[in-house]
Amino acid sequence: MPLLLQARGDAALAAVMRRGPLLAFDFDGTLAPIVPRPEQARVSACVSGKLRRLAARLPVAIVSGRSGSDIAHRLGFEPHYIVGNHGAELVAQEQDATASQLDPVRALLQARGAELRQAGVMVEDKGLSLALHYRLAPRPQQALELIRATLREVQAQCHTFAGKMVENVVPAGAPDKGRAMHLLVQECGAPCAVFFGDDVNDEPVFASAPEDWLTVRIGREDRNSRARYFLDHVNELGMVLERMLAHLDAPVLQAG
Asked: Quick one: average pLDDT of 223-240?
């Protein structure tokens, strides 16, 4: 993956911005730095201010593993779309069935609650998905092994995937961020999309993006990522947003 902030990446950014894309962002690790406790996460005033200016001119979406209701007050601006639970919230007719599919998992986690808490695991129920956080566990690797051993008992009812010090649980066959992004592009009528993400649950977007989308991964640690460009750190996003605004204001050069 080439670096977005180099000349090649900036040229690609300029080209896609001229087309009026949907701008979409993951939340944790992308718009907001990863923090020890999920409830502490916020978008900086600098980033939210630039996003507010972009949202006045282009459709902007937040597509996150968090629930949509958890995200809204953390942004500092109002996007056109907020889609939570790894994309599942966008498919409204499936939500009731999706939530109930996780009931056997909830029952198991409740039965094992004392053991999980003792290991430092925090269970977050987001309705359409579950997240088992172990960032604050005194022995993180042992906590992860306990989580995975526990979830093996219900593996037929759910799909699990790792995140940054978290194990995510969604119903088997649940929609993902890739599906959500394609539905959002269709709904808003944009010709293409720009998407920024940083984790495993963003890979369905990277993998399914058409050639004319621009996809960016925050962090280069996953060399198998399907994103087209990368940024080294979440702190670089503010510079990219400023470049996006500049490209919107740049005059279009006429051929000949």
From this structure: 95
Rounded percentage of the chain residues whose pLDDT exceeds 70: 95
Amino acid found at 203: E
DSSP letter string, 42-105:
---HHHHHHHHHHHTTS-EEEE-SS-HHHHGGGSSS--SEEE-GGGGGG-GGGHHHHHHHTHHH
Residue-wise pLDDT tens digits, 15-60: 999 999 999 999 999 999 988 888 899 999 999 999 999 999 999 9
- The secondary structure of the chain in percent helix, strand, coil, rounded to multiples of 5, reads 45, 20, 35
Domains of the chain from N-terminus onward: 7-91+175-249 (3.40.50.1000), 95-171 (3.30.70.1020)
Q: Are 238 and 226 in contact (CB under 8 A)?
A: no
- pLDDT digit string, tens, across residues 125-184: 998 899 999 999 999 999 999 999 999 999 888 889 998 999 999 988 888 999 999 999
What is the DSSP code string of 103-164?
A: HHHHHHHHHTHHHHHHTT-EEEE-SS-EEEE-TT-SSHHHHHHHHHHHHGGGTTTEEEEE-S
